[in-house]
């Protein structure tokens, strides 16, 4: 199937006078998750980030360290798997003409990865869509979130954008990231899997006049609510006409998500200022209402996960597959009416599959969970209202000494992150070092960041905040991040412990508070490695988990959870 699609693609090269074609992971909206995954269509790769370059005789798939094992497994028979850093300034495509769809690339992407040693040819038609035509599906209209849920009206948020435009002496800002539009207007949608993101863009002038770029039928609810008028809703095909009629000189665009297509249209009329959309930072600081709702969502989610952990580790006596395990977890989550759907595809990997950082089991491709295996489960949910993300690693029999040693070092890193003095360790880069230090003592490490930002009833991954080797953003009150150090041994096992945390001010000092509530497998811990301070942390955390989840559990689940308090 994949080979046939590739050949159909190559057959179009002569028509467009190109030597190759570039396919990114993202769609026209640069969404984290998309229903139109062209990279998967042409390569079978299901990871969340990557590029493919298809030449007449060679097929390349570029991925980062999170996905090298997965990419090789899913696409390695047909594609040559290459690390991201090899794209930049590489000679693989020297003197070749590569075709790109301007709607799914930013100028920055092209300049960084593909334009130094080769020619780029803009092709208006997407060639993957010609090779494999997906049926268009109408998704439900956008919907509003009440001010009482988020703590701030969209009109109050618009004033911040007006101030930003005045500060930058600009006439317009073009907000292209749909999640940023969602945050600003207090709206959500169902256009994408795993996240309530409405596929749209927003143009705002310095007088706070709005133009929502989307399918008009999707805006009908928010028009009725008078959040926006029908005249302010512009179909994608009418965008160029809108721009011609606007008066002004300067336009701010987001260099991360404004496509080459839109940039070229705007450049004909305006002086372009490329900046990071200010909404990324604004939405990273959660309101008190948002934090309160996130806390409530995590109690519900924690109860479901705890029930699942008890079931799979203690109660269940049958042989089950990874796929059956993740379905059982979904069953527990669905029992609460506030649960909507997963916040990402569940990662349920046993044994060697646990070493694939973003592994996904399917009904037809799923290993049996063995008692001797280490089982890693990374999952999350979208709730009304809140977004969760949690990883637990468990064993079913007495683990090997080396497994306990590594798990305990990961745990020590996890605790070190939580206990970070945020007046001293101000950035994600500073904190990331603390997470890795116990593994590095035995020359081990992991190829992903220690933590990512999390949205409020939005993307499960958001920036600019993160805990990683290169992030220099100051951690601030109201931010939500994941805390997820790990270790992965190829073809053997994977370990990860993940909680979501939020930043809280106590006595004029910033500190992390746990959102996630679920037990950490005590059978995998070498308690002799823990300091008194680390043991105290575990005691307090397990006590908090027990006290907040008590009312949601049956008698046997309560007894089991109580055994973690020691």
Question: SSE layout and pairings?
Answer:
Layout: H1 2-10, H2 13-16, E1 20-24, H3 38-43, E2 51-55, E3 59-63, H4 68-75, E4 80-83, E5 97-100, H5 107-113, E6 119-122, H6 127-131, E7 143-144, H7 147-150, H8 154-167, E8 172-175, H9 178-185, E9 187-188, E10 201-205, E11 210-213, H10 220-224, E12 233-234, H11 239-245, E13 250-254, H12 260-267, E14 271-275, H13 279-284, H14 288-315, H15 322-334, E15 339-342, E16 347-350, E17 374-379, E18 381-383, E19 386-387, E20 390-395, H16 401-418, H17 428-440, E21 451-453, E22 462-467, E23 480-483, E24 486-489, E25 493-496, E26 499-506, E27 509-514, H18 532-549, H19 555-562
Parallel strand pairs: 1-5, 3-4, 5-6, 8-13, 11-12, 13-14
Antiparallel strand pairs: 1-2, 2-3, 7-9, 8-10, 10-11, 15-18, 16-17, 17-20, 18-19, 21-22, 23-26, 24-25, 26-27
């Amino acid at each position: 199937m994949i080979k046939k699609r590739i050949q159909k693609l190559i057959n179009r090269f002569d028509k467009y006078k190109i030597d190759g074609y570039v396919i990114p992971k993202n769609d026209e909206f640069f969404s984290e998750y998309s229903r139109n995954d062209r990279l998967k269509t042409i390569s079978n790769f299901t990871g969340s980030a990557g590029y493919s370059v298809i030449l007449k005789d060679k097929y390349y798939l570029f991925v980062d360290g999170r996905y090298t094992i997965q990419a090789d497994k899913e696409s390695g028979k047909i594609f040559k798997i290459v690390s991201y850093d090899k794209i930049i300034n590489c000679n693989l495509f020297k003197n070749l003409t590569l075709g790109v769809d301007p709607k799914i690339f930013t100028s920055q992407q092209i300049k960084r990865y593909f334009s130094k040693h080769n020619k780029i040819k803009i092709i208006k038609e997407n060639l993957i869509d010609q090779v494999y035509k997906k049926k268009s599906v109408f998704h439900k209209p956008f919907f509003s979130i009440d001010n009482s849920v988020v703590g701030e009206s969209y009109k109050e948020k618009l004033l911040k954008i007006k101030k930003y435009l005045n500060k930058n002496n600009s006439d317009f800002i073009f907000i292209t990231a749909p999640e940023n539009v969602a945050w600003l207007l207090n709206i959500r949608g169902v256009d994408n899997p795993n996240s309530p993101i409405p596929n749209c863009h927003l143009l705002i002038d310095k007088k706070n006049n709005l133009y929502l770029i989307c399918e008009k039928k999707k805006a009908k609810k928010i028009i009725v609510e008078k959040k926006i008028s029908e005249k302010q809703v512009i179909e994608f095909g009418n965008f160029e006409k809108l721009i011609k009629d606007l008066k002004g000189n300067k336009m701010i665009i987001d260099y991360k998500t404004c496509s080459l297509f839109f940039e070229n249209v705007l450049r004909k009329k305006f002086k372009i200022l490329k900046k990071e959309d200010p909404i990324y930072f604004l939405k990273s600081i959660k309101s008190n209402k948002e934090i309160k709702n996130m806390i409530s969502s995590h109690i519900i989610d924690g109860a479901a996960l705890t029930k699942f952990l008890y079931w799979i580790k203690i109660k269940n006596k049958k042989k089950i597959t990874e796929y059956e395990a993740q379905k059982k977890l979904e069953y527990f989550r669905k029992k609460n009416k506030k649960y909507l759907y997963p916040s990402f595809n569940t990662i349920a990997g046993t044994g060697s599959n646990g070493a694939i950082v973003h592994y996904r089991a399917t009904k037809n491709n799923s290993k049996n969970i063995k008692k001797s295996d280490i089982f890693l489960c990374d999952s999350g949910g979208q709730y009304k209202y809140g977004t969760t993300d949690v990883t637990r690693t468990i064993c079913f029999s007495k683990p090997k000494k080396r497994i306990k040693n590594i798990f305990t070092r990961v745990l020590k890193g996890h605790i070190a992150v939580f206990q970070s003095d945020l007046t001293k360790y101000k950035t994600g880069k500073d904190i990331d070092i603390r997470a890795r230090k116990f593994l590095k003592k035995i020359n081990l490490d992991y190829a992903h960041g220690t933590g990512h930002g999390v949205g409020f009833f939005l993307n499960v991954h958001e920036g600019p905040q993160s805990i990683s080797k290169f992030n220099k953003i100051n951690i601030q009150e109201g931010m939500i991040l994941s805390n997820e150090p790990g270790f992965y041994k190829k073809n053997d096992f994977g370990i990860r412990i993940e909680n979501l945390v939020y930043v809280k001010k106590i006595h004029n000092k910033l500190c992390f508070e746990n959102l996630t509530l679920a037990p950490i497998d005590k059978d995998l811990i070498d308690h002799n490695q823990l300091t008194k301070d680390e043991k105290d942390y575990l005691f307090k955390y397990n006590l908090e988990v027990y006290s907040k989840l008590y009312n949601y559990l049956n008698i046997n689940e309560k007894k089991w959870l109580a055994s973690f308090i020691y």
